[in-house]
Design goal:
The chain is α+β, with helices and mostly antiparallel strands. The chain is built from three helices and five strands, in the order E-H-E-E-H-E-E-H.
Length: about 100
């Protein structure tokens, strides 16, 4: 059973900056938790789908620490049940859970 999540990443530099983009994609693809990296245009530069054995926040922090990341947002989180179905959790539920633990 794992936790699946999708992250929106805005890069610190433009795609055209001398291989900067390709280095970032290679770094992400080298991470065993990363299932897919999709370039997009708009409010973010990359969508990253991950599958982690524990909490998605750990991989989010690991990616956020990269020098080429300007910002990272979690779009969707779901935990696989024993039946193999995905149980989705909203970001509001995640934030509520995080706030309760900090109190």
């Amino acid at each position: 059973m794992g936790t699946k999540a999708v992250f929106m990443i805005k890069m610190a530099k433009r795609f055209s900056d001398e291989g900067y983009y390709f280095d970032a994609v290679r770094e992400l693809e080298a991470m065993p938790e990363v299932e897919a990296v999709t370039p997009v245009s708009g409010v973010c530069d990359l969508l990253v789908k991950v599958d982690v054995p524990i909490r998605a926040i750990f991989i989010a922090d690991k990616i956020r620490a990269k020098k080429w990341v300007q910002s990272l947002r979690m779009l969707e989180v779901g935990a696989e049940t024993e039946a193999g179905e995905a149980a989705k959790v909203t970001v509001a539920e995640l934030l509520g859970e995080k706030e309760r633990k900090q109190v």
